[in-house]
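Risk mitigation, structural track. In case the binding assays with adenosine-5'-diphosphate fail to produce interpretable data, a predicted complex structure has been prepared as a fallback.
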Amino acid sequence: MSDYTIWEPADAAAHVRVPEPGDDKYSRGVLGVITGSAQYPGAAVLGVEAALRTGVGMVRYVGPKSVGRAVLARRPEAVAGAGRVQAWLIGSGMDHASRSAATGDRMAEALRQELPTVLDGGAFDLYTRSHGPTVLTPHYRELARVLDSSVEEIAADPGAAAAHAADTLGVTVLLKGHTSYVAGPGGLRLASSTAPSWLATAGAGDALGGILGALVATHYEDILADPAVLGRLAASACVLHGLAAERASGGGPLTILDLAAAIPATISDLLAH
Ligand SMILES: NC(=O)C1=CN([C@@H]2O[C@H](COP(=O)(O)OP(=O)(O)OC[C@H]3O[C@@H](n4cnc5c(N)ncnc54)[C@H](OP(=O)(O)O)[C@@H]3O)[C@@H](O)[C@H]2O)[C@@H](O)CC1
Ligand SMILES: Nc1ncnc2c1ncn2[C@@H]1O[C@H](COP(=O)(O)OP(=O)(O)O)[C@@H](O)[C@H]1O
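Fallback model:
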């Protein structure tokens, strides 16, 4: 932990791109989303919901048709089907062992574009094929699988585990937990623990993926100019996620749609201070 700098709300506020009068939906950035599966359609719904609530020019959902229908039922603002995007969010709500051939093809096509990419749960195996600036978002069990280690080893020193993963895999790693650790290949080390423990509930990570995807899509030019920006955006996503959870919780339980609904006011508060 000593190597890590705490990423503060003011740091996160500085990493929200506020649209300007000259912006349109494309200049703000389009996030392509390949998430969800027949088994876990909710993960796709939650990620898209969180991305749109964080602010992005457009979300293009490119997953299975049945999941796309669920996404559109909740969020008609999302556009289903392929098209040009500035960043990708891939892998929430799918099991890599049972990925369909069609999903594998969509992922391969996305990764070929070498754009800034967020890889979540069901897509960690693809990190070697992701040649754009890439951030992985594992929880402890997932990082243990990626590193062929054990949960106990990760939990004993999560900051060191995240740093080791970033250094050996050559990507940015956001290790999720009560404190989340972001480690980047260039020695970047940031930590955040803004979330209440009420956030330990299913779907929380799917929402984090959406928040981060939106931040990445709206900063794609900055990331391409300086890949270290990706780590700062990952830490900013943790801060926003935690503060929105705190607002949704108010000291009690929360659902992930409540968290998503709290994101806009969380951002406007951050920007006002
Ligand atoms: N709304 C949605 O669509 C959501 C979809 N989601 C999707 O779900 C998938 C799995 O995600 P995850 O994080 O649970 O995966 P993972 O690390 O493999 O954990 C498995 C480990 O947990 C353990 N375990 C299971 N039950 C347990 C219990 N009652 N009490 C204690 N332990 C228990 C189990 O142990 P076992 O039962 O095998 O002994 C195993 O070790 C993933 O594709 C994700 O995207 C989620 O994002 C949620 C919202
Ligand atoms: N005890 C806790 N306190 C605060 N935040 C937590 C706690 N446990 C988990 N979280 C946060 O909740 C999210 C859980 O992500 P993940 O395990 O991927 O959930 P899911 O797969 O259900 O979407 C992460 O952002 C993590 O930082």
